[in-house]
Design a protein that fits this description.
With 184 residues, the protein is α+β, with helices and mostly antiparallel strands. It is built from four helices and nine strands.
């Protein structure tokens, strides 16, 4: 009977070698997948990075004319509740005098003109400008002042004097309600 099975297998073109080749190729495929999967999975962002992708900020306690600093993706974010005077100064500034001209309205959310949210990193060399505390110098334009190289920002976060080439960046943010902002 063994001769009959061998004769049938030989007649159909299947041999023991074909079976061994198939099993070997299957083991190699599984082995490559087992080695490649952790490598590919390591390219995904870590859980701590995903947790920092957004930050919720309670803006209820921020009084008119004051500011707070929060962290988002390892960067300081300045959230300022601007006064009517600060808004008027920002809107009346001539755009022709600015290095990176942007209107104040383009830097705030419609209907929320008093809230300014900017990345608190000087665009010259990455310093953190002063101006968040009431005792900090705010520069010639009442916004922020970077003492490292003398950049002056206005109350809209726009560069007005000094070596910084660009305005303070605006992070992606949205108002989730009247007392909370989601950054990121």
């Amino acid at each position: 009977m063994a001769d009959t099975v061998a004769q049938v297998a030989a007649a159909s073109g299947e041999t023991r070698r074909d079976f061994l080749n198939l099993v070997t190729a299957s083991f190699v495929g599984v082995g490559v997948g087992a080695i490649a999967w952790p490598f590919i999975a390591s390219m995904n962002p870590a859980k701590d990075v995903l947790a920092l992708s957004t930050t919720d900020v309670d803006i209820g306690p921020i009084a008119n004319g004051s500011a707070i600093t929060v962290m988002w993706q390892g960067k300081p974010i300045f959230v300022r509740n601007r006064t009517t005077k600060e808004i008027e100064e920002a809107r009346s500034a001539p755009l022709a005098d600015m290095r990176d001209p942007q209107t104040d309205q383009s830097r705030v959310k419609p209907g929320k003109d008093n809230w300014l949210v900017v990345v608190g990193i000087c665009t010259h060399l990455g310093c953190v400008p002063l101006g968040q505390k009431p005792t900090d110098p705010r520069g010639d334009y009442g916004g922020w002042f970077c003492p490292c190289h003398g950049s002056h920002y206005d109350t809209s976060g726009r560069i007005r004097k000094g070596p910084a080439p660009l305005d303070l960046a605006i992070p992606p943010y949205a108002f989730t309600n009247d007392k909370q902002i989601k950054i990121g």
